[in-house]
Amino acid sequence: MAENAADSGTTSRGRPARPDLAAMIVPLGRALMAAEQPVLDAHGLTMWAYSVLLHLDETPIRTQAALAEAIRADKTRIIAVLDDLESRKLIRRRPDPEDRRVRLLSLTAEGRRLRDATQTAIQQGEERLLAHLPAADRAGFLKGLRALSALPELRR
Amino acid sequence: MAENAADSGTTSRGRPARPDLAAMIVPLGRALMAAEQPVLDAHGLTMWAYSVLLHLDETPIRTQAALAEAIRADKTRIIAVLDDLESRKLIRRRPDPEDRRVRLLSLTAEGRRLRDATQTAIQQGEERLLAHLPAADRAGFLKGLRALSALPELRR
DNA sequence: GCTTACGATCTACGCGAGCACATGATGTGT
DNA sequence: ACACATCATGTGCTCGCGTAGATCGTAAGC
């Protein structure tokens, strides 16, 4: 069918049939972050703090360096974030009795509550956006997005 | 069906059924840009320069400020980029006879050639990624992505 | 015990990006 | 003519971030 060239991404002669993926995805990411910002502000969290809360009890995180890498933050930058979260009793940070060099990080009940409340609010905003898509496109988009996110090629 | 809760984004009790969109899209965008970088280097273009070439004859751009806004760049930053592109004869920049304050920007033939070559190379890389998706998901992903990119809510 | 390795922390440096303001050339309204 | 707006451009400030190196406490191997 005539769509074949478009499906493969380029027409037979030169000019591509779609914008670059990055040219669509990067601005979309920017817009999503901008939409998140007021929600985060309302919950008293920075992006980094929110990232920390999100990742904290997903995978058992042992070292702060590991956490920093997981959320793609600099390990020197994460410290102030953790200090703040700890002082607000959202996370716990105490020396591992097994190896007192490492600080064991864990969410407090309050931290978990705040994370859930924030994430719910954020995803409600996202749902309003997704509502603009026809159901089929929306499902396909999410499925494709999750699959791409899981690709090891993009992990690093 | 059991998928309904997941489709609406949250389960009945609290914890969401999917990662935040931004948490998937932003890293994906980063990865795509990282994948683009070597290609751009090979073609002697920066991101900004490539953005300029991409946008230049899509919409009739009159002022440099308009171009800057279109590619979401700072209008003071774009000048050096234009200087470089002009000195390499990839774009033309000359005063509008109608209004000699504005500089009319246009792609040269060589600029168009370089843009096409670069974009083709970039999209080939993207296609290798998309190839990991089942055809149905891939089509749905692209369709959803294009629809979301076109949403006016995200435009600004 | 000594040496080496590792984790957390701090400080200093540099880069890239956005923002605000100034300037010079040019248009436009009165 | 004069006041004001607009465009391109330059300059300097500030932020956020990443990198590198130093320090301190702690482990682990010899």
Describe the structure.
Two copies of one chain form a homodimer. With 156 residues, chain A is mainly alpha-helical. The first copy, chain A, has seven helices and two strands, in the order H-H-H-H-H-E-E-H-H. The first copy, chain A, has helices at residues 3-8, 21-42, 47-56, 64-70, 78-87, 109-130, 135-150; strands at 91-95, 103-107. The longest helix of chain A has 22 residues, at 21-42. Chain A starts with a helix and ends in a 6-residue tail after the last helix. In chain A, 30% of the residues are buried. Residues 1-9 of chain A have low confidence and may be disordered. At the A-B interface, helix 2, helix 6 and helix 7 of A face helix 2, helix 6 and helix 7 of B. The structure holds a DNA duplex (30 and 30 nucleotides).
Q: What does the largest sheet of chain A look like?
A: 2 strands, antiparallel
- Any idea what the shape of chain A is? globular
If interface size is counted as residues with C-beta under 8 Å from the partner's C-beta, which chains form the largest one?
A-B, 56 and 56 residues
Q: How many strand units of chain A?
A: 2
How do the helices and strands follow one another from N- to C-terminus of chain A? Answer: HHHHHEEHH
Radius of gyration of chain A: 20 Å
How would you describe the oligomerization state of the chains in this entry? Answer: homodimer
Helix content of chain A: 55-70%
Strand content of chain A: 5-15%
Termini separation of chain A (Å)? 37 Å
Task: List its salient traits.
homodimer; two-stranded antiparallel sheet; 60% helix; DNA-binding
